[in-house]
Write a structure and sequence with these properties.
The complex is a heterodimer.
Chain A lengths: L3 E12 L13 E12 L10 E3 L2 H18 L5 H11 L6 H11 L5 H23 L1
Antiparallel strand pairs in A: 1-2, 2-3
Chain B lengths: L10 E4 L1 H8 L3 H11 L6 E4 L1 H15 L1 H12 L3 E2 L2 H14 L4 H13 L3 E3 L3 H8 L9 E3 L4
Parallel strand pairs in B: 1-2, 1-4, 2-3, 4-5
Helix pairs in contact in B: 1-2, 3-4, 3-6, 5-6
Classes of the chains: A alpha+beta, B alpha/beta.
């Protein structure tokens, strides 16, 4: 690992409604921009807590979100917990009708017999490789 | 809270074998769609990054890689694709103990870490393994053949 400071920039688009914000511009999405710094030297990869920089406005929003979530959950949250909850909320939630329509659009994408044969061949090769490694 | 956040929302993992049935428009794929995918209680479907890889090469063999990339990326955008780095240790633990493919172990790892059911098509590896006894991990393993 080369030594030095690594700067990582993240952009996370959050659903304003999901985090309880009323967007003044009427836009649905709120962008959270984070700059993270990680330090490495020749000997160690320091797994210290990462420092992030956020604007005052985002900090206020995050604080509001934390207060709301603390009330809902009935216990204190750290900033780490709050960000983790926000990231978790980004996981695709299925709108059932749209989801099914989407899936149906792709039904028939593969030739099942050919795909099955190809996959079985791959798996057989994988088993043979493992068998060879074990003996 | 920790990295292994267990989902409070009803969700399930779909293995490549199940996605193939759906994409191949088979009778079993239709059952999966009607029973699992349409289940109103199911709000999220997870797939492993290895399932995406498998779908890509399977489609690419007949359609070419660029078409496969476009089609598979399109299809999978309504699923939650787990990060490989979140799964690698658990998948390795599964692979150490079970005579299953690495791709199967990644699907099982999602189920194990999130505490949600994992759907597979019943294949010969599973029959051989389950004849020896139950899986030595607390995993809700389900076969679409039994739907």
């Amino acid at each position: 690992m080369p030594c030095g400071l690594i700067i990582l920039s993240y952009r996370i688009d959050l659903d304003a409604e999901e985090i309880g914000l009323k967007s003044s511009s009427g836009r649905r999405w709120v962008r959270l921009e984070l700059d993270c710094y990680k330090y490495h030297d020749h000997h160690d990869h320091h797994e210290m807590a990462t420092t992030i920089q956020i604007s005052d406005e985002v900090q206020k929003r995050l604080f509001t979100f934390m207060n709301q979530k603390e009330k809902e959950l009935g216990h204190r949250l750290s900033y780490n917990d709050a960000i983790e909850l926000l990231l978790e909320s980004q996981i695709v939630r299925v709108e059932k009708d749209e989801f099914i329509k989407h899936v149906e659009k792709y039904q028939g994408l593969i030739n099942y017999k050919d795909a099955r044969k190809a996959r079985n061949e791959e798996r057989q090769l994988e088993r043979e490789r493992e068998h060879a490694l074990q003996h | 809270m920790n990295g292994n956040t267990r989902s409070s929302i009803n969700s399930a993992v779909l293995d490549t074998s199940v996605l193939m049935e759906v994409l191949g428009n088979t009778r079993l794929g239709e059952t999966v769609k009607n029973v699992v995918l349409k289940d109103p209680a199911m709000e999220r479907f997870y797939i492993s990054p290895l399932a995406v890889t498998e779908l890509l090469y399977l489609v690419a063999r007949t359609a070419g890689f660029q078409v496969a990339l476009q089609q598979v990326e399109g299809f999978t955008k309504v699923f939650t694709i787990c990060e490989e780095k979140e799964l690698r240790v658990e998948a390795a633990r599964m692979k150490t103990a079970l005579a299953l493919s690495l791709a199967d172990c990644y699907a099982l790892a999602i189920g194990s870490l999130r505490g949600i059911p994992v759907y597979f098509k019943r294949e010969s590896e599973f029959d051989v393994m389950l004849k020896k006894g139950p899986i030595p991990f607390p995993i809700d393993l389900r076969f679409v053949d039994d739907l």
